[in-house]
Amino acid sequence: MKKQTGAGRAPNIRDVAARAGVSHQTVSRVLNGSDRIRESTRQSVLDAIKATGYRPNSAARALVTRRSGLIGVLSTHQNAHYGPQTMQIAMERTARQAGYQLVLVSTSGERGAVDSAIERLLALDVEALIVLAPRTEVYRALAGVEARVPVLALDSSRREGASNVAVDQFLGSRLATRHLIDLGHKEIVHVGGPQDWIEAEERMQGYLFELGEAELEVTPPILGELSADFGYLAGRDLLRGRRFTGIVAINDQVAIGLLHAFREAGADVPARISVVGFDDIPEAAHIPPGLTTVRQDFVAVGERVVEAALAEIVSGAPSGAILLEPTLEVRGSTAPPTDAGWWASRPLS
Amino acid sequence: MKKQTGAGRAPNIRDVAARAGVSHQTVSRVLNGSDRIRESTRQSVLDAIKATGYRPNSAARALVTRRSGLIGVLSTHQNAHYGPQTMQIAMERTARQAGYQLVLVSTSGERGAVDSAIERLLALDVEALIVLAPRTEVYRALAGVEARVPVLALDSSRREGASNVAVDQFLGSRLATRHLIDLGHKEIVHVGGPQDWIEAEERMQGYLFELGEAELEVTPPILGELSADFGYLAGRDLLRGRRFTGIVAINDQVAIGLLHAFREAGADVPARISVVGFDDIPEAAHIPPGLTTVRQDFVAVGERVVEAALAEIVSGAPSGAILLEPTLEVRGSTAPPTDAGWWASRPLS
DNA sequence: ATCACCGATGAGAACGGTCACATCTCATCC
DNA sequence: GGATGAGATGTGACCGTTCTCATCGGTGAT
């Protein structure tokens, strides 16, 4: 079947051995860098490898060693975002340097889909499972699986049997909210993310916590997607029926949409409305008037989670939770509130 | 070593067979959906599978079938962008529906790194190789590898032995440039991408082609990275020493940076300068004054390339080149040029 | 009744590595 | 000079599947 120049099948370790005039085991030793090999022998084996075009078969190796060299990543469809992507790249690099590869499976949030995604990864004999899709449904599915491998989640919810690496979303949201409060804002609205997304929940809790601390009135948050399109719609809705001077947005994309809606309505940011984003995407500084946002070190998270995974693969013991601290990046979209908010100029109808 | 409840090792096909009172081969038949199985037998096997918690070993299966079920994706570090990420998600979904998984290896552009990345993927027995990193260095490395598997590239450069699926970058850039020309612009500058990035080259060629057609003067392009930060720097440079009324930017991020620089300098867009981006990222419509840009259907590209890969896996024959057409998305950042460009208000020093 | 045939199932050999253990070759020591 | 031991290499089993081919029981044609 397999088309190929020359022989009918790929050369294996015994072909190399025959050519080098040694046993297959000696070839294996050279391949695995054993030091009990005479230099001249090693050389002739290496020559034979090159001459035959031999390439080790990882399936065979995985079969006997029970180590696939794979780390599974469970992701979601909606991850065309800066954060997950940046983490993924950092994870890949870290894994590669340790001799591992990343296998990606993404899933919609639906019940059966998550189960089968996990099943697929486990069937591949991944040595660790990293959950880049911190959604409640994913955890429900994980709980039902008796995983023989370390499971690590990229959020700060401590789960039975799963380690965590994450940026402290609760803290980040507190920083954002506190920043507005410190500026003097009293009417602060939260535009939040999908309810089944764990970090969205944490961010909302941080917002609520600071409002509680400052004894400010809580108005119902608006929950939706993580896109600029949604932010734009939310912004129009807000202008139509709310009193507020500050907004804590679930992420920068949503904040961008909000800015759009406010600009369109003539509600100047930051003169009349202050907006805080989350993530510090690379464009945040370039979008007028410069987006104040919570910066997360996604690269560090990606590196840490893989390091933790590798450690667990070796030790077999969970590595616990690692929580990184976000920082606030203050730019032009936040300022002290005016005496009256935006609605003073355009009273509610 | 491996911690586990109950037995010392994972159940295999013979354990299931013993429990069901059949031969291991019968279990294998049930697993592979053979129709030559009596219904009652199938049921008892399925029961035994459930009872033992059996999970097929993909390494063993891959060893004998020589099909790993993996598709390798060669990517670059700098891919924290909307396009590659969107394609990757679409690729993963399409592959998964066909029973394949994506293995991701990314690489810096350096010589040795690319070679080893390819080597790693081939060692994993990937059944096809998709190149999401259309850089010249990657092609050099690919040429040196005798790949026994289909190679597909996500750009429109036709290479020996590799199929292509791509959006026509040349055409896209022509659309962008032509749009400015049609509006009446005569002094149009290109802010381009990295020179070793194949699509950047094609976009520049499209720009040059249309300028030639219209017999307009070509000024030296500015080449750099694909980030808003770079766009901002490039914008400041341009304002300092060039005469122009229109800009064709290599992508939307760069365009966002340009807009920032122009806004800062008081050079109104689109009144004095028109800007066209590329990609149509989801934020493009929300950034003032709305970014005119070239829209690419990344999802379609991702789907098509995997479909082509699957077809090649089956047929063994290259599927040739597929070229999708981009479209122009006209928004607020482009308009007819004023009689004099931005420099009329702030003459060059 | 015999036999070819077919559907259902079983038995054993691959696949290409690594592991555990055996063997061989010398230099070293008493 | 033979026992000893360590380094270098070889031998065969085994990992968990699927593949090929054999077997078995029943059925319809002869």
UniProtKB/TrEMBL annotation, chains A, B:
Residue ranges crossing the lipid bilayer per the database entry: none
| SMART domains in alphabetical order | HTH_LACI
Domain of life (superkingdom): Bacteria
Nucleotide-binding is among the record's keywords:
no
Q: Which GO terms describe its molecular function?
A: DNA-binding transcription factor activity; transcription cis-regulatory region binding
Is Nucleotide-binding among the key words of this record? no
* Matching InterPro entries: HTH_LacI (IPR000843), LacI/GalR-like_sensor (IPR046335), Lambda_DNA-bd_dom_sf (IPR010982), Peripla_BP_I (IPR028082)
Keyword field: DNA-binding, Transcription, Transcription regulation
Residues covered by the HTH lacI-type domain: 11-65
PANTHER family associated with the record: HTH-TYPE TRANSCRIPTIONAL REGULATOR GALS, LACI-RELATED TRANSCRIPTIONAL REPRESSOR
Instruction: Please identify the protein, giving its name as recorded.
Output: LacI family transcriptional regulator
Q: Which organism is it from?
A: Mycetocola reblochoni
Q: What taxonomic classification does the UniProt entry list for its organism? A: Bacteria, Bacillati, Actinomycetota, Actinomycetes, Micrococcales
